[in-house]
Amino acid sequence: MEENSVTPPLNDISNDKVANDAFALQIKNKSISLPNGKVNQQYCIPFTFEQLGIEDINDFWFDGLENIGLKYNPDTSEISGNPTVAGDHKIKLSIKRKDWTENKPIFERELVLVINHDPKSLWKEIPTPTDTEYYKPDSAKQFLKVEASTGFLKFGKEFRKDIVVASQRGRSHAHEGKARDDDFGVAYDKGNQWYIMSVADGAGSAKSSRRGSEIVCKTFVEVCQSQLSTQHENFEHLIKEFSKETSDANRKKLGDTLYSIVGAGVFKAYKNIEEEAQKSGKPIKDFSTTLIVSICKKFKFGWFVGAFWVGDGAIGIYNKETQFLKLLGESDSGEFAGQTRFLTMPEITQPAELYRRLRFDIVPDFTALILMTDGISDPKFETDANLMKIEKWNELWTDLLQMVTFADDNELAAGQLLKWLDFWSPGNHDDRTIAILY
Whole-prediction pTM value? Predict the structure, then answer.
């Protein structure tokens, strides 16, 4: 043995071993766990041994956190970051006692940190095969810029509104490589300053509903343009008379003429589906679709808005400034839960029923006239009763403003709105379509 070497007394070695064994047992038996995290979602939890009731510690550190996008910050005593890898991860916790010196033991404890999948990542995005019958693109968007015209100059620029619309295939369809069933149609008659809008949701259970929604939206816009070109003078006269005196007689005259314009467009849409069914040899129910439509024009005394609505989804006039809301119809889900009425049901296009579903109003102004399919109304409003609550429309508008710039002539709004449609809502993965006049 070297002269200068020092051998610890046996009782010191024995005491140290006892202390180490006791400390190791304390670490082993102590309940230490890390809360679950989720991929791409901020993770931040405090981690101190004072909180856990373990004393006599000099230092500790983790091995394995960096591999999944996390780290321990001793200054804040927090494990934080954005997890990038899903799964059950083994994290090694290494601990030194307060009297630790070189060659003394480092105590280890294995922890399991569960990082759950980002739900979005579990959904496949399979393009719709282009040889699919009645193929349509998986998404569509349109910005309809309304130029200032002689008719608008007399009202001022603030009365000129634009239309933005977007439609996106739902995750449930994308996961299976199926086609988008929703559709839309919008137009602006520059000569007479009429806006025309439509959205439709083809029934998921109907094999050719994507064609049905396409037919009804396209047909409605075309027929309304034609009807307004020949009837606008008389129609606008009746609107002006109604604005002066909202009598039952004036309401009836205006309603009858609205029926001859909007009702004609809706009925022709049904007939064109019927024709397609006969031509293809398919039953008409294969083309089942909802339909929400509107026509709108600015007058000196305000905005006239007419509408028709069958099925789920929603259409509303919303004014953020005055906290005004007017729902232009009601969502009808049929006699049983989960059952929706469609335009293709024969009773819907009976004259009395079609007339009953017409709505119109005159309002001073509005922030937005919004038409949407149930892929949006279900997650954003949750119940039919909530459609009547201005608070829910405020929430929708605030949410839209996070991604969409509703400014004059902003042609980027269509792309922004399409991107907004990708919002995440657990359990709501249907096609989404929204048309906004603002």
Answer: 0.80
252 with 130, same domain: the answer is yes
Residue 336 pLDDT class (50, 70, 90 cuts): very low
Separation in Å, CA 151 to CA 146, 147, 159, 300: 12, 11, 10, 10
My answer on whether 130 and 46 are in the same domain is no
Label residue 332 exposed, middle or buried (CB < 10 Å: 0-12, 13-18, 19+).
Answer: middle
77-113: burial string, b at 16+ Cβ within 10 Å, e else: ebbbbebeebeebebebebbbeeeeeeeeebeeeeeb
Same domain, 111 and 259: no
Sign of CA dihedral 230, 236, 239, 241: negative
Q: What percent of the chain has pLDDT over 90?
A: 78
For the chain, what is the mean pLDDT? 91
How far, in Å, CA of 274 to CA of 285, rounded?
9
The radius of gyration of the chain's CA atoms, rounded to the nearest angstrom, is 32
- Per-residue pLDDT of 403-422, as tens digits, reads 999 999 999 999 999 999 99
